[in-house]
Design brief:
Hypothetical Cytosolic Protein, Chain: A; 2 domains; binds zinc ion; 47% helix; alpha+beta; four-stranded mixed β-sheet; 254 residues; single chain; three-stranded antiparallel β-sheet; 60s Ribosomal Protein L30, Chain: A
Length: 254
């Protein structure tokens, strides 16, 4: 890829991601509220669909059952469906990322990994999966759609952690709870001095993501420049998603 193309992609990504972050932040808050209320209500068995894939499926007695598994069309490995991107075709045969995993009709699943995206395109895996000639968006647009899907999952995780009260914000509180923290997310508009201060005092991974207004909104608060996560599972899940995100953005070798 030429340098100009890469710069254009990065610029377009910044604009689209910014719009996406503000528009989906509210949706993620609503979704986390729904999921939190689901957790509290133990009397109603809940039948989660593919779209609502953050929790285990529950049977009639509310017992956890195995999550549905799907194969990646590129590497053919099986994963829980929520660990894969779902793609669908519109009536014109154009390929789209199904961010919410609930569009009707046939779907094709793919890893978030950049190498699987490239492999799927190289071996025409989408056309094989849909048993028809698939019109691909440009690879740049495909990457943007994938990053948006990843961002949405990250928003969901942050909003849900907020409802569980396992997210720490505020520099003083972060410092005082430093030994408990498993991951820090620092917004791209955080002052360098604040970032350096936290880095010196907290021995914990720090990843840059989103902006302070969006992250504050996800937690029902004012702007938040650095978030700390206490739960190991949440931190690991976020770390994985953020790694896929940076991989897609940093090395679009096409
Ligand atoms: Zn794969």
């Amino acid at each position: 890829m030429t340098q100009t193309k890469k710069e254009n992609l990065e610029q377009e990504q910044i604009q689209i991601t910014s719009q996406f972050h503000s528009s989906y932040a509210q949706e993620a808050v609503n979704r986390s509220n729904l999921e939190a209320s689901t957790e509290i209500d133990n009397h109603q068995p809940v039948h989660l669909t593919e779209a609502n894939d953050q929790e285990d499926l529950l049977d009639e007695q509310g017992q956890s059952v195995k999550k549905p598994q799907r194969s990646c069309i590129a590497c053919r490995q099986k994963f829980d469906s929520h660990q894969l991107l779902r793609f669908v075709l519109d009536p014109m045969g154009q390929l789209w990322v199904d961010i919410f995993r609930k569009a009707p009709g046939r779907g094709a699943n793919l890893c978030f990994k950049q190498k699987c995206v490239q492999l799927a395109i190289k071996k025409k895996a989408f056309s094989h999966a849909f048993k028809q000639n698939v019109l691909h968006p440009s690879i740049e647009d495909l990457y943007i759609q994938i990053v948006q899907a990843i961002d949405r999952k990250i928003f969901d995780q942050i909003a849900l952690a907020g409802r569980k009260r396992t997210v720490i914000s505020g520099l003083n509180l972060l410092e005082s709870l430093a030994p408990k923290l498993k991951l820090l997310i620092c917004t791209t508009d955080c002052a360098l001095s604040s970032k350096e201060q936290i880095k010196k005092k907290i021995n914990c991974d720090m990843v840059d993501f989103s902006d302070s207004q969006t992250l504050g909104h996800l937690l029902g608060k004012d702007k938040r420049v650095i978030l700390g996560f206490e739960e190991l599972d949440t931190a690991n899940h976020l770390r994985t998603l953020l790694t896929y995100r940076s991989e897609i953005l940093a090395k679009p070798s096409f």
